[in-house]
Amino acid sequence: MSLLLARDLADALHAGRTTPRAVLEDVAQAIAARESQVRAFAALDLDRARAAADKAGLAALPLAGLPVGVKDIIDTRDLPTAYGSPLYAGHRPRNDAPVVAMTRRAGGLVVGKTVTTEFAFLKPSQTRNPRRLTHTPGGSSAGSAAAVAAGMLPVAIGTQTAGSVIRPAAFCGVTGYKPTFRLLPTLGMKTFSWHLDTMGLIAARVRDAAFAAAAITGRDLDIGDETAERPRIAIVRTARAAQASAQAHAALDTAARAAEAMGARVFDLDLLQELEAADAAHATIQDFEAALAFADEYEYDRDGLSPQLAAHLDAARLIAPETYDLARRTAKRARQKLGDLFAEVDALMTFAAPGAAPEGFATTGSPVFCRLWTLLGCPAIAVAGLQTSDGLPMGVQLVGRFGRDRQALAVANLVEHAISR
Q1: Contact at 8 Å (CB) between 48 and 98?
Q2: Active site residue 420
Q3: Given the residues 85, 125, 144, 164, the one annotated as active site
């Protein structure tokens, strides 16, 4: 299946070589052909998108009329927002979340809501991995990654609290971009953890995700074909390296050698103890805040929660405020140490996931190699192009300095080009 290349399509739209309606009809055709198997959408309204596509002047805007999917954890005024839970079936928010308003203002056409796991937590969703339908697409941004990987969307918005953009992008063989914390506003999404929840983007290639981020935010992030020049890339396997499969280690080695062949200065790096210690702080912060964020659902609708989430909240409610405060201090120290580290390196390269997408649908996979970078708030990019010996996608993760997203994207673009060679 062919991927839809957001930046190339936008160039064609801006130049008048195609029209928003023509691109939308290609998307509609792909959805008709593949959605019954992939099941990436929680809601669709192609007729409303067609009406928007026919409005004059759309192609002159930054997103130029590109179809966009929005994860169903994010509020939309003209589409239902169920947060992946039967408790909110048919829920219609009064307003668009700011990120949705920004997308529409930039000329994006919101064609539908992409499937999320229940409240963006761990219960597997209905969505299947388009690269192999018998395997999970990951979570919680399952539908966003699968829709892009199936060629049904050029851009989709996801969210990440632990590994929910990077992991599904890696499993589905596309690019996931988790920006610096709050570069994309998180208002209007169903909160799980307000110190960790992060909006992200999924697209075919690094330059497509960078283009979409630039168009939505108005920031200087559109790197085009630009690649970082002789970047210093530190290979970081972390104290959890034993949880990565042999094929994940091989993929990381392959990406490192490829980047080196493109002129990158690549070396191994062990993280300081202050950084490694912060990994455990992630769960404490996430769960303490989740117990508060879901206090109402827990109190009044506990039977409507999945047993998995209900049991998790049972335990989360036992976390003492002092334990939470200590975890936040640990995270703060780690952020300071990471800032010092980036004086010596331009990017870190590590695993995107412990391995390829697991077979079956009992799990969405582990976020073990993403939690730390979400906690520290720095930009992270899942770079695609590698695969296992039996043909499943295998991504690697590039991590950049807080607030230096353009540089991180340029390094990720170099790695993507290097892998493709």
Answers
A1: no
A2: no
A3: 164
- Would you call 155 helix, strand, or coil by DSSP? strand
First-to-final CA distance of the chain: 21
Q: Which of 71, 113, 123, 178 is catalytic?
A: 71
Of 26, 65, 30, 28, residue with least CA distance to 46:
28
Cβ atoms of residues 229 and 197 within 8 Å: no
Candidate list 85, 125, 140, 193, residue with the active-site label: 140
d(CA 405, CA 13): 26
Question: Domain count of the chain?
Answer: 1
Domain-embedded: residue 185: yes
Element (H or E) spanning 147, and its range?
helix 142-149
Burial readout 13-29 (b: 16 or more C-beta within 10 A, e: otherwise): beeeebbbbebbebbbe
- Which domain does 212 fall in, by range? 6-217
pLDDT tens-place string over residues 315-357: 999 999 999 999 999 999 999 999 999 999 999 999 999 999 9
Pairing mode, strands 109-114 and 67-71: parallel
Residue 395: phi and psi, rounded to 5, are -95, 165
Residue 230 lies in a domain: no
Is residue 188 one of the residues assigned to a domain?
yes
Q: Is the peptide bond before 125 cis (omega within 30 degrees of 0)?
A: no
C-alpha to C-alpha distance for 15 and 228, rounded to whole angstroms: 28
Active site residue 85: no
For residue 102, pLDDT over 90 is answered with yes
Tokens 């969505």 correspond to 127
Q: How many CB atoms lie within 10 A of CB 308?
A: 14
**Domain CATH code at residue 54:** 3.90.1300.10
Give the Cα-Cα-Cα angle 71, 416, 345 (nearest 5 degrees). 100
Q: Is the pTM of this model over 0.90?
A: yes
d(CA 36, CA 143): 13
1 pLDDT band, cuts 50/70/90, is confident
380-409 per-position pLDDT tens digit: 999 999 999 999 999 999 999 999 999 999
Instruction: State yes or no: is 140 an active-site residue.
Output: yes
* 202 is a domain residue: yes
